Automatic annotation (TrEMBL):
It comes from the Bacteria. This is Lysophospholipase. Pfam families: Lipase_GDSL_2. Transmembrane segments: none annotated.
Length: 252
């Protein structure tokens, strides 16, 4: 091996050695709860539903929309998290759906809620929504506000609990990662408003909270922002794995 190749491999190994593992990054952001029975949230023969926008959608097929089906899940964090649950909990025989749709804001979830949530009767419902409520406003395609987001979100969750009083809720924090193709410093203050409202909903409805922003903030200490997400919103392969790990750690 010549000297230049030796130097290249040496630098590569050093870079990999300095990169914390995804489980370690998540552990630095989410303290695990001590439970005798992990994943007790999920009951035998239970139904789990992932809801949200393009981050959850991840280019899934929308014709058949089958449960426990890779094509119907797309390639994002929902697919990875669902795959883990099915591998770790085969005795529970879970039915898991992904009904995220690209571009959705809260009011658009509400428009399709009967078909894409209530009719499926989930026992566990996970929702990640909010980035489009800001991004589309920023782009001049929507005139919503943080107050509208919060009020629409509360109404959606109230409707859900009225129809499914025993449903267990998982509320995911909307996030944006700086120094990427779409996200810069001007996102920080307005996004905090949407994040605060989402956390308020989690508290009001006794939901499990998934702190995606904090997880990505920790992740960029170990690798560049674009390693995790090209545009600051849609995760890369590494970002999707990071999100799945954070979601699983939050619900375990």
């Amino acid at each position: 091996m010549n000297l230049s190749r030796r130097k290249f491999f040496g630098r590569s190994v050093a870079g990999v050695a300095g990169l914390a593992s995804i489980p370690a990054i998540v552990s630095a952001s989410i303290a695990p709860e001590k439970k005798n029975n992990k994943f007790s949230l999920f009951e035998k023969e239970g139904t789990v539903l992932f809801q949200g926008d393009s981050i959850t959608d991840a280019r899934r097929e929308k014709e058949k929309e089958l449960p426990n089906n890779p094509q119907s899940f797309g390639s994002g964090y929902a697919f990875l998290a669902a795959s883990f649950l099915m591998n770790a909990l085969p005795e529970k025989n879970l039915t898991i759906y992904n009904r995220g749709i690209s571009g959705n804001k809260v009011f658009q979830l509400a428009d399709r809620w009967q078909k894409d949530c209530l009719g499926l009767k989930p026992d566990v419902l996970s929702i990640l929504i909010g980035v489009n409520d800001y991004w589309h406003k920023r782009a001049g395609k929507y005139d919503g506000t943080v107050e509208i987001y919060e009020n629409d979100y509360r109404a959606l969750l109230q409707r859900t609990k009225e129809n499914l009083p025993d449903v267990k809720l998982v509320i995911c924090q909307p996030f944006a990662v700086l120094n990427t193709s779409a996200v810069d410093e001007t996102w920080v203050k307005p996004m905090k408003g949407y994040q605060k409202s989402a956390k308020k909903m989690a508290d009001e409805f006794d939901a499990i909270w998934v702190p995606f922003q904090e997880v990505f903030d920790e992740a960029i200490k170990h690798a560049p922002p674009t390693y995790w997400t090209g545009d600051g919103v849609h995760p890369s392969m590494a970002g999707a794995q990071l999100m799945a790990e954070a979601w699983l750690r939050s619900v375990e």
